[in-house]
Structures are given as C-alpha cells and as structure tokens.
Design goal:
mainly alpha
C-alpha cells in the first residue's frame, strides 16, 4: 500500500482536491458550507451544556468550550471520513469500472479530502485557546500522532463498509444511525469520569475513546501518548485487525464491484 501511495501520489492529491471542491460546486458560498454546520454544532452544544445544563470541564483551569471542542473536532473528521469513504465506490463508479484504475486509492482520496476541513478546525481550536486564554504547550506536537490514529481507524472501518455497501445498500443508513449513537456513547460531550471506576473499562473498549482523549491530551490534559501504553497497544491491535478484515472482504468482493454498479 505504501508503494502504491508513493507511486500514485500526484493522482491522489489531484483527485482529493477535485473531490473537496466539487462537493460545493454550484453553491453560492462554496466550501463555506463545509465549516458552517460543524461550527454551529459546536456553538449550540457548548451553549446548551455550559450555560443551560451548567456543565463544566473536568480539567481544572480549562473552559468547557475548549474541552468540548478538543473532543468534538476529531469526531467531525471521523464521522465525515466514515460516511464519505463508505460510499466512495458508488460515487466513483465510473472509475471502478475501469480495469486499469486501482480502486484501492479511492478511500485515500476521500480521507485526504476530509483532512482538508479537519486542518481548518485544528486552527479554529487554536483560536478558541487564544480567546479563552488557554495555554498551548509542547504536548500539542503529538497531534500528528493522534491524527494518524484517527485516519487509520477511519480507513480500517470504512474499508469494510465500502466493500459491503455495494451489495447491501441499506448499510449506509445503518452507518448513519451508528454514528448518531456513537456521538453520545463516546465521552465527547460528557466526561468519562462520571462513569463509576469499575465500569470505565467498558468505555475504553471503544477505540474512539483513545482518539478523543488523545486530542484532549494534546490541548487540555497535557499528557504524552506513551503514558497510556496499554490503551495504545489495544487501539493499534483493534485497528490492524479491522484493516485486515477489510482487506479480506475487499479482495473477495472486488471482482463483483463492476457487476453491481
């Protein structure tokens, strides 16, 4: 896969840039819509929980909106990547039918396209820190690592979904429902320490827990990822297993892709 990426990097970047711009082609405000809804979501949830429900950050000296945004922004990337990559073979059916085109590159195209928006939200997080007088420390450097984790998990899960969805179109709706549930089941809006200690291990079985808390370690909790060795090992084992399952399903289903499109 790494060799494929290096050999086809120009094609991948070109398709990713075109994918990003084509989503909003024809609309008056263009790519503005890629950022508008997530920003409004952050504002609404922050107002409801901070002012309406009087929620506070579990981290001392950190504002709720900063703590919340540090967890919500990686979720935006994950959910967008899952939704877009899962339908990538349907969207790019004309390329899938071309024998000479390597369709394994298409999920990477969608992943990079989603990353364009994610980088802007990372900048937004720095602005939130500035306006709330939050401290940005050297721990933020590990953001690169956690972004890699987010991309790896998104790719692993969606590799399975994108291969199956061609044969079971209702899977798209199931994924949307699962993501809606996942938003509330993952400690993004609420802190995981409200769960009794003897049940917190259940939350940690969710690999997204590692990513969400990782982003918060970069900005709020200020903790290095190697201080969580067991959770880190568990995350990568689960991610590799999911990717391996995706590879098996993809290779088995690939010969029938053109027939069902």
């Amino acid at each position: 896969m790494i060799k494929k990426l290096r050999y086809n990097k120009e094609i991948i970047w070109s398709l990713a840039a075109n994918d990003f711009s084509s989503k909003y082609a024809g609309s008056v405000f263009g790519v503005f819509w890629a950022f508008f809804q997530p920003v409004i979501t952050i504002i609404i949830y922050s107002c409801v929980f901070q002012f309406g429900l009087k929620s506070t950050s579990p981290i001392e000296n950190a504002s709720y909106i900063f703590w919340f945004s540090a967890g919500m922004i990686p979720w935006f990337f994950f959910s967008e990547a899952i939704r877009s990559i899962s339908n990538v073979y349907i969207e790019y059916g004309y390329l899938v039918k071309k024998v000479l085109f390597d369709v394994e590159l298409l999920p990477i195209v969608k992943l990079i396209s989603a990353a364009f928006v994610h980088f802007v939200f990372i900048i937004l997080l720095f602005f939130i820190a500035f306006f709330n007088q939050e401290s940005i420390t050297i721990y933020v450097l590990q953001l690169v690592y956690y972004l890699l984790c987010n991309m790896a998990l998104s790719l692993a899960i969606s590799k399975i979904a994108s291969s199956l969805i061609l044969f079971f179109r209702d899977l798209s709706q199931i994924i949307n429902i699962a993501l809606d549930i996942g938003l509330w089941a993952t400690p993004i809006i609420w802190p995981y320490n409200i769960v009794p200690n003897n049940f917190q291990w259940i939350l940690k079985l969710n690999p997204l827990f590692y990513i969400i808390e990782g982003y918060r370690d970069c900005f709020v909790s200020q903790q290095w990822f190697w201080n969580r060795p067991y959770v880190s090992i568990y995350f990568w084992i689960i991610t590799v297993i999911l990717y391996g399952i995706g590879e098996i399903i993809f290779k088995k289903m690939r010969p029938q892709f053109a027939d069902v499109l």
